[in-house]
Design brief:
Helix content: 10-25%
Largest sheet: none
Structural class: mainly alpha
Shape: globular
Number of strands: 0
Strand content: under 5%
Order of helices and strands: HHH
């Protein structure tokens, strides 16, 4: 929050807390300038990295973000992040 709204923690749903940008760079695999407008969660980073590096998937709660990055997800499904 960096002092916005008089707060320093992220225990709220103001844009400064909930809309934190996530930047991924992988030249040759992820198109430069690609923007994903679906909410994501950091728990999904490990499965995403493993997916892009063709590594065996570790059993974790997250899921790969690759379908969102490559725009191959089912747009009729509901997606949310907590």
């Amino acid at each position: 929050m960096m002092g916005s709204h008089g707060m320093n923690s992220k225990n709220n749903f103001y844009d400064e807390s909930a809309r934190v940008p996530l930047i991924i760079r992988f030249p040759g695999r992820i198109t430069a300038g690609k923007r994903v407008h679906v909410p994501v969660n950091l728990i999904d980073m490990r499965p995403t990295i493993e997916d892009y590096l063709n590594m065996p998937a570790t059993k974790v709660d997250g899921k790969t973000l690759r379908p969102f990055i490559e725009d191959t997800y089912n747009k009729n499904e509901t997606h949310f992040s907590v």
